[in-house]
């Protein structure tokens, strides 16, 4: 497919109005309110979409309602940025329902991770909009963001200078290389399950000359091996400029069962690609996380990952 020119969203300012939506699974009402209260304490006004208050089985309302929420938030001149409530499941069901021309015509900060990966990929590849793989209202902001996580979030969505070096929390070890080297490319990626699920569809991830960021939660090492193998068989990882794998939350399985560790799987599956591979970066389903601007120009070198440009406009 022919990819559209890249678009940077307007950065967030104190007093802006943020739209909160639940494009995947329903959220806990108390956690949703706590997240909204935290955002208000940071100086933002809040409007919630209809999906925030809906439950339909494992979905936050019907597909049509959740897609309409996305459209309303992007189209409304009152909304300055959009933050997802939580992940779960359901965003892939929306991809054929979205009006990408409407989104392209109304670029805004859009934040989420986990199941929101499908929206990051489809919006980024069809509109050119830089979107943000970062903390969500109920999943993260309900507990308040740590200094490290909060600083990374606001530097990405409200900053007016290049993000620069992406670092781990001060108390954590720095990320390490499976394969050292240097690479430049635009960031893409997200949750590994969603990346592999897009294969064979019109929305599959484009990895050519990209730096692919991958994270996962609660998956046994053999499942991670299977998903990486699927991406390898599809030729997706071989065409990348570089790879970044997050600290994988709750993925090493039962200590009483003989198994490979996640690190061993990553070493074996990714170590022979002859491209830089960085791992143990905090950007996924961990309490601490950085915000990654998907679509932005980045660089991998001996010091790790850095975003080399401003990712929003004034």
UniProtKB/TrEMBL annotation:
According to the entry, what is the taxonomic lineage of the organism?
Bacteria, Bacillati, Bacillota, Negativicutes, Selenomonadales
Domain LD-carboxypeptidase N-terminal residues, every copy: 19-134
Q: By its UniProt entry, which InterPro entries does this protein fall under?
A: Carboxypeptidase_A_C_sf, Class_I_gatase-like, LdcA_N, Peptidase_S66_N, Peptidase_S66C, S66_fam
Catalytic residues?
114 (nucleophile), 215 (charge relay system), 285 (charge relay system)
Q: Where is the LD-carboxypeptidase C-terminal domain?
A: 184-299
The record lists the organism as Dendrosporobacter quercicolus
Record field: transmembrane: none
Give the family, as the similarity comment puts it. Belongs to the peptidase S66 family.
UniProt entry keywords in alphabetical sequence: Carboxypeptidase, Hydrolase, Protease, Serine protease
Q: Which GO terms describe its biological process?
A: proteolysis
Task: State the protein's name.
Answer: Muramoyltetrapeptide carboxypeptidase
